[in-house]
Amino acid sequence: MCSVFEVSRSGYYKWRSATSSPQAERKALVLRRIIYHFKDNRQRYVSPKITELLLKEGFTISERTVGKYMRELGLRSCVAKRFRVKTTDSNHNLPIAPNLLNQKFATAEPNKVWVTDITYIPCRQGRLYLASVLDLCTREIVGWRLEERMTTDLVLGALDDAYKAKRPPKGLIHHSDRGSQYASADYRKRLKKYHMKASMSRKGNCYDNACIESFHSVLKKEFVYCTKFKTKQHAQDEMFQYIEFFYNRKRIHSALGYVSPAQFAAKFKKRKTA
């Protein structure tokens, strides 16, 4: 075989010993696991999250090494540049709630603070708007609606879904921006019906609602900008898959100790039953 390929026997045995060494075998295994986690999460994870998954599997490896291996494999997370559409109309004479949250984002228990916002979703068949409600403790999206118009019914639908799913106790702080949808009479009545305390950001201060802004940013970079929605029904189906199955149940979150929102929320259920 060596004579056919015109290589020396000593060179062949040197190559075989190198490729079958424990170090080479370990690297080959690590590369296979990196490829698996990258594809299993639809090319959304970069080196920090893949490193955490490898550590959980028992590998001793640094984020720097994982990044190096990903470059060798040509694996790049899907990230697209930001495109902003104005979704907040704060130029109105409707009542404004005080800023009860005041950037205090550390919450000890679920269903104590919910934050909510609207974002634009591009679609070939026409514009869509997503209203999301996020639990500040678990970072779970507890309610959402995707519709054609940015109306009060859009945000009411997301709030109703969240309330039906979680049935929070009285006194929950509901934080939003100063948009006319959240300041409307119908929305204020619904908050009163659910015994929730309204809280609103200061005018023009996106940091007051940073957590839901962060979720929408992740949603755009990991999912929306990487997907071409041909129809509105296609967008609805794909959004359901991303939020309910990937983000809430699978996507690990650094602020939660690298577990998913559903896994983090399960810890509180165990404490109540213990």
TrEMBL record:
InterPro entries: HTH-like_dom, Integrase_cat-core, RNaseH-like_sf, RNaseH_sf, Transpos_IS3, Transposase_IS3/IS150/IS904
Pfam families in the record: HTH_21, rve, rve_2
All copies of domain Integrase catalytic, residue ranges: 106-269
GO-annotated molecular function: nucleic acid binding
Superkingdom field: Bacteria
SUPFAM superfamilies associated with the record: Ribonuclease H-like
An annotated GO BP: DNA integration
Annotated function: Involved in the transposition of the insertion sequence.
Record-given protein name: Transposase
Organism expressing this protein natively: Paenibacillus graminis
Organism lineage string: Bacteria, Bacillati, Bacillota, Bacilli, Bacillales
